[in-house]
Specification:
With 215 residues, this protein is α+β, with helices and mostly antiparallel strands. The protein has a single domain, classed as Oxidoreductase, molybdopterin-binding domain (Sulfite Oxidase, Chain A, domain 2, Alpha-Beta Complex). It has 4 helices and 12 strands, in the order H-E-E-E-E-H-E-E-H-E-E-H-E-E-E-E. The strands form 3 sheets. Strands 4-3-12-7-8 form a 5-stranded mixed β-sheet. Strands 5, 6, 9, 10 and 11 form a 5-stranded antiparallel β-sheet that branches. It is globular.
């Protein structure tokens, strides 16, 4: 009996005798740094610029509220939000501070959530609220027409609290202040003039990358 066969034989005997545990242990996720031939930024490449510092949410008590101009208001747990088709997108975030990060984002389509709640005809604006009191808004047509996702993973790993866990908005083609983190509530509104945290302080309400972020 050669050495390899002998080792396999011994392992089988130990397993059958109960000496080897059959428990499957989950290994730590490994961040993807390359995707379809493109180099990705690291999830550690982001600068901390939130209004109150990183937020650490107790996921057991977390709920996402969907309210406003909808037929059915909803309050969803983290797992209930994720109990939908997942999508991935390679999108670069551009910050007004002059840095950027190319990340493979994974999450759920916002329009799936909103359609389930039932969008009332008069709704034209989506307002997002964060755990730290931050808010911003975007046109409903933009959210639906661009298949905007609410991400829970970055580069294949669950989003760290410092980056926005449990959810960050992937507001592609918008400046970084529209990429709201730590989302706790989504409100459908008929007020396109709603101004969020930075918009109240002079930033553009549109937030388009091809235009100045100064309002």
């Amino acid at each position: 009996m050669n050495r390899i066969v002998f080792v396999i034989f011994i392992a089988a005997v130990l397993l059958l005798s109960g000496c080897v545990s059959e428990e499957v242990r989950e290994l730590q996720e490994v961040e993807i740094r390359e995707y379809q031939g493109e180099n990705l930024s690291s999830i550690g490449d982001f600068r901390e610029n939130s209004i109150k510092g990183p937020q650490y949410i107790d996921i057991e008590n977390y709920s996402l509220e969907i309210t406003g101009l909808v037929e059915n208001t909803k309050s969803l747990s983290y797992d209930e939000v994720l109990n939908r088709q997942k999508y991935s997108k390679l999108v670069t975030l551009f910050c007004v501070e002059g840095w950027n990060a190319k990340i493979l984002w994974e999450g759920i389509l916002l329009k799936d959530l909103l359609n389930e709640a039932g969008i009332k005809p008069e709704a034209n604006t989506v307002i997002f609220y964060a755990y730290d009191g931050y808010s911003t808004s975007l046109p409903l047509d933009y959210i639906i027409g661009n298949d905007i996702i609410m991400a829970h993973k970055m580069n294949g790993v669950v989003m760290p609290s410092e980056r926005g866990f449990p959810f960050e908005l992937v507001a592609e083609e918008k400046w970084g202040y529209k990429w709201i983190k730590w989302i706790t509530k989504i409100e459908l509104s008929n007020d396109p003039e709603y101004r969020g945290y930075w918009e109240q302080r002079g930033y553009s309400n549109n937030g388009d990358l091809d235009k100045s972020f100064v309002g």
